[in-house]
Amino acid sequence: MNRFAEVKDLILSLEGDFEKFYDKGNQAAGTRVRGGMQELKTLAQEIRTEVQEIKNNAAK
To answer: What is the pTM of this model?
Structure first.
């Protein structure tokens, strides 16, 4: 469940930048949002791989 907490923490850490970008048009916040979303993508892929490995090992 720790991995889920990582995802939640990352999303929550981006909340302020989302507001600054979408509500106030702050371009630097948009850059941070894009970076954070790339980090989220990487984290999601790591979790997918981990889940697949656990699933495959349990089937043996």
So the answer is: 0.87
Number of domains in the chain: 1
Q: Which residue has the tokens 């894009």?
A: 34
CA 25 to chain centre: 22
Each residue's pLDDT expressed in tens, for the chain with a length of 60 residues: 799 999 999 999 999 999 999 999 999 999 999 999 999 999 999 999 999 999 999 977
Q: What are the distances in angstroms from CA 47 to CA 14, 21, 60?
A: 20, 28, 20
Q: What residues contact residue 36 under an 8 Å CB cut-off, 6+ apart?
A: 10, 13, 14, 17
